[in-house]
Amino acid sequence: GRDFPRCDSPSRFEIDTRHFTGNYPPAASLETCISDAEVPGDEADWVEVVPVTALKGDDRLGLALPAPVRATHVRLHIYPDGGIARLRVWGRILFDPAMAGTDGRLDLAAMAHGGRVVAANDAHFGAPDNLIAPGRGVDMGDGWETRRRREPGHDWAILALACPGRIDEVILDTAHFKGNYPDRFSLQAAMIDAAPDALLVTQSQFWPTLLEPMSLGPDAEHRITEGLADLGPVSHVRLNIFPDGGVSRLRLLGRPYS
Predict the structure, then answer these.
(1) What is the CATH number of domain 97-256?
(2) Distance separating alpha carbons of residues 199 and 78, to the nearest angstrom
(3) For the chain, domain boundaries
(4) Which are the contacts of 229, defined by CB distance < 8 A and separation ≥ 6?
(5) Which of 83, 100, 173, 176 could, after both became Cys, cross-link 106 (CB 3.0–4.6 A)?
């Protein structure tokens, strides 16, 4: 099946047989392929990436590949039959230009388009990955929220865009955060050709400013089209929140650059 438009490099799987104690499959294997079909048939170029592997009941079996593979679909075989609770696939999503709208614009940071969170300084109450998740947050736990600061400074998160692009609109959503939203936020951005994620944490402090600090309100979408600096195409963005608090979603709209 396909969970995203295209998974560029799956690298890890998990076969979960929890609650299946007497009716789990004794073994399973996994194949991948690249196909434009919704459900590829046997004629597709399926490649075995996990050979027949023994399973246990009520268990979670992690399977790491020696190297990521290119794939759009994953096929699970069980031998001879039985129950599987979940199959989980971890990997990177390949950006597809066809995802853009008729005007050529899209959310350059969206997880579904291939954006990812590189790092954040705090995730006490909510994961920073929620910032780029689909849809609006369903509650505060579905956003990124940091602990209350008792020392000087502010909190931040670094995002790698799905592809380099020119950002012309920002939407920051504080949905459900009514008394614990940040007072202000700002954005920095840069075009990074190649650098380890760990190095970006230090570098990002000195990136050019994309958006000067702006005030925020509770439980609202803040749409910004004015005041964005013309930095040209960028590949990474740093979100700064002052001094701390909760943000549900961050959308960075623009046109891909190639």
Answers:
(1) 2.60.120.260
(2) 43
(3) 7-93, 97-256
(4) 208, 209, 210, 211
(5) 100
Alpha carbons 135 and 249: distance in angstroms, whole number: 8
| pTM, full prediction | 0.80
Tens of pLDDT, residue by residue over 113-169, are 999 999 999 999 999 999 999 999 999 999 999 999 989 999 999 999 999 999 999
Least Cα distance to 105 among 229, 225, 3, 237 occurs for 225
Residue 23 backbone phi and psi in degrees, to 5: -135, 30
Instruction: Give the DSSP H/E element, type plus range, for residue 203.
Output: helix 197-203
- Residue keyed to tokens 């000067």: 212
Six token digits for residue 106: 């899209």
CATH superfamily for domain 7-93: Galactose-binding domain-like (2.60.120.260)
Helices (H), ranges, 187-236: 197-203
- Give yes or no for a contact between 197 and 159, defined as CB atoms under 8 angstroms apart: no
How many residues does the structure list for the chain? Answer: 258
For 144, phi and psi rounded to 5 degrees? -100, 120
Question: How crowded is the C-beta side of 173, counted as CA atoms within 13 Å?
Answer: 20
